[in-house]
């Protein structure tokens, strides 16, 4: 079977890549130089065309098209005669076609013909040498992979480079997400090279993540970071990422089942008697989050942030300055802890707060949670206590504010949102009195 491809040869001193066209039939290559050389970013190896951004594009594309047509004609003629388009038969037929076309152009000087033949032979020798070098590099890579010392073009190596370059620009939590990406790529295909990533590879990685049962929001985040690394290095490495623009991520389907505490449930949490100091600490941290709407990254503030029972601080996530009055319940908790909540690992907190909530009867009712893995709808039913985590505190604060008629614009300023759209999309439908709303339609 015959195949014709476009080749960008190593760049010359001008930073340009000579363009050749390669015909392969059953492993037998025939390569012709087009006489055109451009920077890699101005040539499309799929269409075989030079970008119209270059003034000589029409003439150069005509030269490339002529060589391509002559190669096609050579293979077609050989097959029509019952032959096989091998390297030698293609060279002979190609020379005959070019000679026939040039009959009307006058006799070509002998030295030019000889030079052209020499150049073609040298290019073919270069092709063979490049293939040998590529093969030897692969042998070295395989040996280094076995020893665990290979980095080279491995994608995980470029993930490490990306995080190292961005470490002063992105927060610790985001850096951990890139570490997670690295681990997943290593598990998916440890020898994946950055220059081997195609649309097919990305689709396979996405489907692999779905098969692992990861939720859509997690998969979307992973794949967005996957593409961020590729795009960051695409220009310096000369990667052709045009095809990757066709990649389709998993759908972003919002989970309407927000978990938050009602006013009664929050009251039960704040008044439950706990003998274990660890549980008291966890309850107090969560209580402050429910009473202020602070994120986990902001809840461990100091007494310096509180003046006349008003909390002021700059959030870690968005660098937004927020100011909100503290309720008497919040002040009571802060005074009990000397305005310095003791830090704890978030993973430990999320485990212990579930234990504390399980002690409260009002939080032991069943809740249904729906999430998506790919296109599969997954339904879970479990006690509400098991669904409580750090972020439920912020959701509780916003929901209770809306239920009690606080202006969404005021809530926005308290919690540090850039606009009220997120508040209204996520919470507004949960705050209405359902009986009153249905009474507007039916008696």
UniProtKB/TrEMBL annotation:
Pfam families: Arm-DNA-bind_5, Phage_int_SAM_5, Phage_integrase. GO terms for molecular function: DNA binding. Residues 256-440 form the Tyr recombinase domain. Transmembrane segments: none annotated. It comes from the Bacteria. GO terms for biological process: DNA integration; DNA recombination. Keywords: Coiled coil, DNA recombination, DNA-binding. The keyword Coiled coil applies. Residues 112-146 form a coiled coil. PROSITE patterns: TYR_RECOMBINASE. The keyword Coiled coil applies. Belongs to the 'phage' integrase family. PANTHER family: INTEGRASE_RECOMBINASE PROTEIN MJ0367-RELATED, PHAGE INTEGRASE-RELATED. This is Integrase.
């Amino acid at each position: 079977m015959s195949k014709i491809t476009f080749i960008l040869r190593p760049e010359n001193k001008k930073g340009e890549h000579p363009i050749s066209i390669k015909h392969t039939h059953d492993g037998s290559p025939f390569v012709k130089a087009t006489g055109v050389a451009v920077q890699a970013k101005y040539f499309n190896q799929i269409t075989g065309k030079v970008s119209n951004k270059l003034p000589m594009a029409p003439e150069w594309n005509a030269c490339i098209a002529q060589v391509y047509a002559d190669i096609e004609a050579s293979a077609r003629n050989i097959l029509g005669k019952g032959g096989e388009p091998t390297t030698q038969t293609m060279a002979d037929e190609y020379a005959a076609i070019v000679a026939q076309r040039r009959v009307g152009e006058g006799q070509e000087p002998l030295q030019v013909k000889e030079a052209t033949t020499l150049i073609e032979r040298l290019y073919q020798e270069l092709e063979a040498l490049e293939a040998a070098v590529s093969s030897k590099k692969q042998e070295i890579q395989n040996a280094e992979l076995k020893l665990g010392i290979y980095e080279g073009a491995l994608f995980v190596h470029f993930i490490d480079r990306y995080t190292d370059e961005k470490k002063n620009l992105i927060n610790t939590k985001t850096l951990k997400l890139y570490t997670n990406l690295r681990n997943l790529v290593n598990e998916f295909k440890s020898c994946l090279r950055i220059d081997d990533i195609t649309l097919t590879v990305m689709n396979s990685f996405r489907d692999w993540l779905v098969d692992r049962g990861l939720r859509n929001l997690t998969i979307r985040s992973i794949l967005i970071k996957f593409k961020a690394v590729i795009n960051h290095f695409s220009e310096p490495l000369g990667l052709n990422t045009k095809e990757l623009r066709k990649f389709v991520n998993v759908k972003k389907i919002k989970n309407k089942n927000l978990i938050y505490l009602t006013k009664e449930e929050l009251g039960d949490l704040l008044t439950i008697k706990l003998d274990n100091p660890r549980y008291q600490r966890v309850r107090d941290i969560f209580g402050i989050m429910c009473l202020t709407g602070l994120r986990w990254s902001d809840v461990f503030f100091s007494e310096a942030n509180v003046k006349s029972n008003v909390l002021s601080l700059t959030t870690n996530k968005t660098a937004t300055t927020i100011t909100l009055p503290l309720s008497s319940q919040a002040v009571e908790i802060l005074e009990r802890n000397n305005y310095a909540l003791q830090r704890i690992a978030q993973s430990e907190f999320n485990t212990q707060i579930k234990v504390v909530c399980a002690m409260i009867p009002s939080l032991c009712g069943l809740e249904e949670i729906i999430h998506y893995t790919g296109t599969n709808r997954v339904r879970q039913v479990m006690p509400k206590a098991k669904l409580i985590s750090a972020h439920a505190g912020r959701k509780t604060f916003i929901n209770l504010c809306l239920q009690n008629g606080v202006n969404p614009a005021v809530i926005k300023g308290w919690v540090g949102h850039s606009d009220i759209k997120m508040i209204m999309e996520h919470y507004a439908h949960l705050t209405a009195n359902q009986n009153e709303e249905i009474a507007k339609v039916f008696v």
